[in-house]
Design brief:
about 850 residues, alpha/beta, Helicase, Ruva Protein, domain 3, five-stranded parallel beta sheet, 22 strands, about 15% strand
Length: about 850
């Protein structure tokens, strides 16, 4: 991706426009033209500084007036238009330069003619842009008036540190049936947790869920939200129940072809016959989904548990009349627990709170009225100001009236304080989350790729642009404005997915729409303010459809969620930088017609787009494009012209059973390949796999029984497959493979006897070997001098194994799945703990006995 200024919510596209203007005019010798351009550049730079100052929390304690807000909005809109115009001109200029001319004389004449025409075109463009900037400057004066100091932080699961144990035990008692119910029929026990937003309902439900899930046969946790797709909810419940009972990972989880409600109800009912489960249905807004769930439960499923969370008391009462249920009204935190939560977030322990802050601390907590979301918000404000009493006084005064009524308006007041305390680049990254549906689980990597494609991330010295984006993601996590939804399943040291608390989500949607940062289509209650305004980003959700009156020709990104959305024509979106289709089973090849005309496209993603058979060849014409094909259905065809493009970054996730075409092994831009079953691939594919020099992450399934019906020469074919694969693995290790995930079945030890990575220069940083138990750590693991993370499934750990693991110089995380049936498993664990304590890095050890 070319280096240019950042696009931001505060300054729009002013910085990229300035960069393009400098690049375009840098080699011009026309003095008048240069003077005009410098004047335009100064005016644009002044506007950029004004917008940054107005959006920065460090610009005294001033708030923008209505006049300033109007000015800021108009400058941002102008910046996008200028940036688009400059890009169009530069594209036209490049095309002209690239014309092939016959003969040296003709070529020189053509260059002179084009240079003259180019000067005239640039002069006209500069005049036009200067006039437009001047018009805006004349209409607005940049007066500044008061701005409140704002502050961050909100993390729904924060109260799990305090005040949860008592309520958790009460709920477990209610679910156990120890509290008498008025109903005697053998239906699942149900508890409905009721409370307003930010009171910790989901956290409490999750704590009970984690406590009970191991005591029952199967379990599922599903966020329902407003206007749920009932079939989607049931599919999620079934998949989780099935996977938890059978202890399967995602590659082995069922993907039922049944789509209709009656079929899904029958599947769940049949599956739960004679099985007990616990199900959490989070954030229910009406009783219709409970009626569907009731149909799915067999009457003999006594002993099963259901927890629902809701903000609406009438919904809770109705749910409890359906099952043998109890309403649980969640209570605010006590002052003791409030202080413990507040001080822990600030000082790590209550004892560290300075005495001079004790009184004001109590005053702040009194205003928060025991609401966990409010407490974490205020603690986030003060996180880097923990010793500045003056700032604490200001924050206390800014909170306003006490939040005794737990109203949404009060909570939003604190969230808005959080928002404006962010630096401009984090404001932009946070507002961008408004494109996702409420309650959506957001994949970190996908989010960062979108940020990069939009131009939000500035590459930091010494880091890649992705690593710089990861820092922004971590900042938002640390400030508690987004919540970890899923940690690294194996090592638990990295957030893989996140979500946004619904109260925070409502705020950023309102803010993004108000500032014309995002246009959201298909969500009831979201009103985009001005139908005549130019659209910058479009999020299509639910059963949304882009109305004909909406001009999307200036949109920079299109985000499509769900199978009920009507896919718009790409011919209307000529300026797209980011195009993402998530769970769009209705997306077909015809919908991608014209994608080759999206010359600025930088990130293209398909997740579960099962009906798309082929990525259009025109995509190969797009420069600096990243393609993410993420799904577990039939692998779409990727044309050779795309495969041969070195600049194209490609991620492929397959379902673990399908055969990947041999041609994929020629895709030099392939960076991630997951779900590859080596016994369903041709030997030619496995041979060419080692040529993927840019492959950084590989996930494989090693199970020879997946070969199916083979010829008589079975042993020879198996040996040939393994030889070719191991040869390729060696090549990938030399080329820079960083992560290898192996799921192994049957004859596990035999697979690892040979040398996988003989080259001492192998850069592998992460190795995961799970599935069947190994009897020893493979010898070649000792040569992995760069290995930082190791997960391995072992029958027993002996002294030899510990010596290998202790000798890995870069090891930081070690996870061992041990066979619980082995007699000396506890001795092995104690010895391994000691070995890791003696390691120079003192790696984190997670020991799990299966």
């Amino acid at each position: 991706m070319e280096e240019e200024g950042l696009v931001s919510a505060a300054t729009g596209a002013l910085q990229p426009a300035l960069g393009k203007l400098a690049a375009l005019l840098g080699d011009d010798e026309d003095k008048r033209l240069r003077g005009e351009a410098e004047l335009l550049t100064r005016e644009l730079a002044a506007m950029d500084a004004f917008l940054l100052a107005k959006s920065s929390s460090s610009s005294s304690d001033l708030i923008p007036s209505a006049q300033d807000k109007a000015c800021m909005h108009e400058i941002r809109e102008l910046s996008y238009d200028i940036d688009d115009d400059l890009h169009d001109f530069m594209e036209a200029s490049v095309c002209d330069k690239s014309a092939e001319l016959a003969g040296l004389l003709d070529k020189m004449k053509a260059i002179l003619g084009r240079t003259k025409a180019r000067h005239e075109m640039i002069a006209k463009a500069v005049d036009d842009l200067k006039e437009r900037v001047a018009q805006v400057a004349e209409r607005h004066s940049h007066k500044r008036s008061k701005v409140d100091r704002r502050a961050p932080a909100i993390l729904d699961d924060a109260p799990k540190l305090v005040g949860v144990d008592g309520p958790k035990e009460e709920l477990i008692q209610l679910l156990s049936g120890s509290v008498e119910s008025t109903q005697q029929q053998p239906t699942p026990n149900l508890v409905a947790i009721v409370g307003s937003g930010g009171t910790g309902k989901t956290t409490l439900a999750n704590q009970v869920y984690q406590e009970l899930e191991g005591q029952l046969d199967c379990h599922a946790f599903c966020s329902v939200r407003r206007n749920p797709d009932k079939a989607r909810v049931l599919r999620s419940i079934y998949n989780q129940l099935y996977s938890s009972y059978n202890n399967l990972d995602r590659l082995s989880s069922p993907r039922p072809g049944v789509r209709d409600l009656p079929g899904l109800i029958t599947m769940i009912s049949d599956y739960l016959e004679n099985r007990r489960c616990i199900i959490v249905l989070d954030d229910i807004w009406d009783v219709e989904i409970l009626k569907v769930i009731e149909c799915a439960f067999p009457t003999a499923s006594s002993g099963s548990k259901i927890i629902i969370t809701t903000r609406i008391h009438a919904v809770a009462q109705s749910c409890c009349s359906t099952f043998s249920g109890h309403v649980y009204n969640i209570r605010p935190l006590s002052m003791v627990h409030s202080r413990q939560l507040f001080h822990t977030r600030l000082f790590n322990s209550e004892e560290k709170c300075p005495s001079y802050l004790e009184e004001i601390s109590g005053q702040i907590l009194d205003k928060c009225a025991g609401l966990p979301l409010a407490i974490t918000a205020i603690s986030g404000v003060l996180a880097d100001k923990a010793s500045e009493k003056e700032i604490w006084d200001q924050v206390k005064d800014l909170i306003g009236r006490a939040l005794r009524n737990s109203s949404v308006e009060d909570m939003v007041n604190i969230i808005s304080l959080s928002y404006l305390d962010l630096p401009p680049h984090l404001k932009t990254c946070l507002l961008y989350l408004s494109i996702f549906p409420e309650g959506h689980i957001i994949e970190k990597e996908n989010l960062i790729r979108r940020w990069i494609g939009e131009g939000f991330i500035q590459k930091k010295s010494g880091y890649t642009v992705y690593e710089s984006g990861e820092m922004c993601f971590n900042d938002l996590i640390n400030r508690n404005l987004i919540q970890p939804a899923k940690l690294d399943e194996t090592f638990g040291d990295e957030v893989k997915n996140c979500c946004v608390h619904d109260t925070v989500h409502n705020f950023i949607v309102s803010k993004a729409v108000e500032e014309n940062f995002v246009t959201i289509v298909g969500v009831p209650g979201v009103i985009n303010p001005d139908p005549k305004a130019k659209i910058r980003r479009v999020s299509l959700q639910n059963d949304g459809e882009v109305p004909p009156s909406l001009d999307v020709s200036s949109a920079r990104s299109l985000h499509v969620f769900g199978r009920n959305v009507k896919i718009p024509s790409l011919s209307e979106f000529r300026l797209l930088r980011v195009l993402d289709f998530e769970n769009c089973s209705q997306l077909e090849d015809d919908h991608l017609v014209g994608i080759g005309n999206l010359l600025q496209l930088k990130y293209l993603r398909f997740k579960h787009a099962k009906a798309v058979m082929k990525i259009p060849e025109q995509v190969a014409m797009l420069h600096h494009l990243e393609i993410d094909v993420n799904g577990y259905g039939k692998l779409m065809e990727i044309p050779m012209t795309i495969q041969e493009r070195l600049a194209c970054y490609v991620t492929l996730c397959v379902d673990g059973y399908e055969t990947v075409p041999d041609e994929i092994a020629a895709m030099q831009g392939l960076r991630v390949l997951e779900g590859l079953n080596i016994y369903t691939q041709s030997t030619e594919f496995l041979k060419r796999l080692g040529q993927l020099k840019k492959l950084r992450k590989l996930g494989i399934i090693w199970n020879m029984y997946d070969m199916g019906n083979c010829d008589v020469n079975y042993d020879k074919e198996e040996e040939e497959i393994e030889e070719e694969f191991l040869s390729s693995i060696c090549e990938l290790g030399k080329a820079g493979l960083e992560s290898l995930h192996i799921f192994v079945r049957e004859a596990a030890d035999a697979y690892f006897k040979r040398s996988w990575f003989p080259d001492p220069q192998c850069g592998l940083r992460e190795l995961i070997i799970v599935g069947d138990f190994l009897s020893e750590v493979p010898t070649w693991v000792a040569s992995l001098v760069n290995l930082e993370k190791l997960c391995i499934t072992m029958r027993v750990i002996n002294e030899r194994d510990m010596e290998i693991l202790r000798g890995l110089p870069s090891l930081r995380h070690l996870r061992i799945y041990a066979d619980a049936d082995e007699d000396d498993v506890s001795e092995s664990r104690a010895a391994m703990e000691k070995a890791m304590e003696e390691h120079p890095n003192r790696p984190t050890l997670v020991w799990y006995e299966d």
